[in-house]
Amino acid sequence: MHSLLHRHRGWLWPTLFLAPGVILFWVVIVASSAESLRISFFQWDGLGDMSWVGVDNYIALFHDPQFYTSLKNNIIWLVLFMAAPPLGLAIALLVNQQLRGLRLVKTLFFMPLVMSQVAVGVVFTWFYDPANGLLALVFRAMNATAPALLSDPQWVTVAVVIAGLWPQVSFCMILFMAGLNNLDDSQIEAARVDGARGFRMLYHVVLPQLRQVNFIAIAITVIGALRSFDMVSVMTGGGPFGSSSVLAYQMYEESIQSYRFGYGAAIAAVLFVIMALFIAWYLYRMLRIERGTA
């Protein structure tokens, strides 16, 4: 037995260490996703018997005006959230300088990352309060009246996205700071000898070395925008009148509050397909860039 273990130790021990994580991934992610897809073809209240309805849930979904409102809001989240990687990079470049007092600045920018999404939502709900919030104080100092952003169907989604951007920018900042600390010093010095400074140094020397970090930052930012739920739940509950709802929140609302688990699973399936298509396209683009064929 000992000789058998010794002979196969090259693959046996890595397999034993990887097995718990792989099993957990298949049970929690893959199996649950497959079960959710199966439920989307049934009418089910979560308690009684399932009733097969085929693609009726999807047909009803594509005729539901609220679905298109949620999809539009997800697109708004996606577009505005794309500001997080460049802002994170800019802050990382700032705090990476060797200047006095920047350690405190790093801590201040890092704080949103360690706060829960619920806490961030509560903070910004107070911030947007048109009567006693910080925004109201700013407008009052200018002898103006603060807008009730969370009650305005036209601006509520933008207001919630700004709240979500706060911790997302911090996350991107941490990623880019790690990348900046791993830059090739020899390339930096060679560029300085050749006279590269400022934007030329950034564009031709620094950014190419941050390509992998940038890939991770953009991918996680897009996924975060598409699966946005916490901020909407805490700050607006999808209101007013469903105008700030996103696909993830609509899925929760239909499944948990309306007991339409099949319909909610159909929304989850559509959201999964959108994410999968983006990730596949993004990976394809990155591979083409790496191979120099883009």
Automatic annotation (TrEMBL):
InterPro entries: ABC_transporter_permease, MetI-like, MetI-like_sf. CDD domains: TM_PBP2. Its main location: membrane. Keywords: Cell membrane, Membrane, Transmembrane, Transmembrane helix, Transport. Gene3D superfamilies: MetI-like. Residues 70-284 form the ABC transmembrane type-1 domain. It is found in: Cell membrane. The chain crosses the membrane at residues 12-34, 75-95, 107-128, 155-180, 201-226, 261-284. Pfam families: BPD_transp_1. It is a multi-pass membrane protein. It comes from the Bacteria. Belongs to the binding-protein-dependent transport system permease family. This is Carbohydrate ABC transporter permease. It comes from Kushneria aurantia. The lineage of its organism: Bacteria, Pseudomonadati, Pseudomonadota, Gammaproteobacteria, Oceanospirillales.
